Amino acid sequence: MEKIGRNDHCWCGSGRKYKVCHMAMDEKIHRYELEGHMVPDRSLLKSKEQIQGIRDSSVINVAVLDAVEKMIGPGITTGQIDDLVHDMTVKMGGFPASLNYEGFPKSVCTSINQVVCHGIPSHEVVLKEGDIVNVDVSTLYKGYFSDSSRMFCIGEVSEEKKKLVQVTKECMELGLTMVKPWNFLGDMAQVVNDHAKENGYSVVVDIGGHGVGLEFHEEPFVSYVTKAGTEMLMVPGMVFTIEPMVNMGTNEIYIDDDDGWTVYTKDGKPSAQWEITVAVTEDGHEVLTW
Q1: Contact status, residue 140 vs residue 54, Cβ threshold 8 Å
Q2: How far apart are CA 172 and CA 106, in angstroms?
Q3: Closest listed residue to residue 40, CA positions, set 148, 184, 207, 228
Q4: Which residues pair with residue 149 across a beta bridge?
Q5: Which residues pair with 109 in a beta bridge?
Q6: Among 215, 272, 211, 282, which Cα is nearest to 242's?
């Protein structure tokens, strides 16, 4: 990190002197670094103004998912969900962050049953009684990104699928309890993985959460299979997603060869995911999207 004098303006842009702003925090981070821990650099720490921008983007993201929740059901196509997400996001002044992202062709991801993530909406795909589906909405608004997803049970769903959806939500909620300054991302991963395994499930290894806010996907990569006391130190100003992907069977996955996006469970068993965006605060966390 660049050396700053005690009486210089703080690097965060607050206009305050460094000694009364971020100096104590930087010194504490440095002590963890000397102990061999992975620590965030300043580029990963959002200012109060930037977090407000992410918060504003999140208002649209949450409203869009609320609207999806009201319309989704048997007979609805995933293409109709995509139309709703696109039109409502634009009407509210935002832009769907997934649209054209690295070539992704739609405004939302709709992942049904054995699809783990990145399912591509289509007016040919009709939601049926007994399906479970993840709807993953991401929003760009005035230069700031937000991201979240929810699971929906379509009509009457088997008890096995209901349990998977519920336990996956519990995994996300347990992970959230570990988000506080001076914990590690591995502390969160441990409780997520333990709860999934206790219920006979597995957690996807190769796809995880991510930093978000100034870009759609930022560092750090957020794993849900690592151990407590490992991975990056959490400090105030970090913003990232909690989004464990929990499989009923094996954690092995594969990507559709034809579209290059859709991720499936290798054994064809169902998968579930809940996603929130969270900011680390001085004394805990703030949930920005849900």
Answers
A1: no
A2: 26
A3: 184
A4: 136, 275
A5: 136
A6: 211
- pLDDT tens string 173-184: 999 999 999 999
Instruction: Identify the H or E element spanning 255.
Output: strand 253-255
Distance (Å, rounded) from C-alpha 41 to C-alpha 26? 10
Cis peptide before 40 (omega within 30 of 0): no
pLDDT, tens digit, for every residue of 29-38?
999 999 999 9
**How many beta carbons lie within 10 A of that of residue 191, not counting itself?**
18
pTM of structure:
0.94
Q: Which residues have a Cβ under 8 Å from the Cβ of 103 and sit 6 or more positions away?
A: 260
CA angle 5–6–10, rounded 5-degree value: 80
Q: How far, in Å, CA of 79 to CA of 109, rounded? A: 10
Q: Rounded to 5 degrees, what are φ and ψ at 254?
A: -150, 160
200-203: long-range pairs with CB below 8 Å, 24+: 201/164, 201/167, 201/168, 201/246, 201/247, 201/248, 202/246, 202/247, 202/249, 202/250, 202/251, 203/171, 203/244, 203/245, 203/246, 203/247, 203/251
**Nearest one of 35, 109, 124 to 76, comparing CA atoms:** 124
pLDDT tens digits, one per residue of 89-133: 999 999 999 999 999 999 999 999 999 999 999 999 999 999 999
Contact 97, 58 (CB under 8 A): no
- Structure token pair of residue 137: 């909405």
Residue 256 tokens, joined: 């559709």
CA–CA distances in Å: residue 194 to residues 86, 141, 226: 37, 36, 10
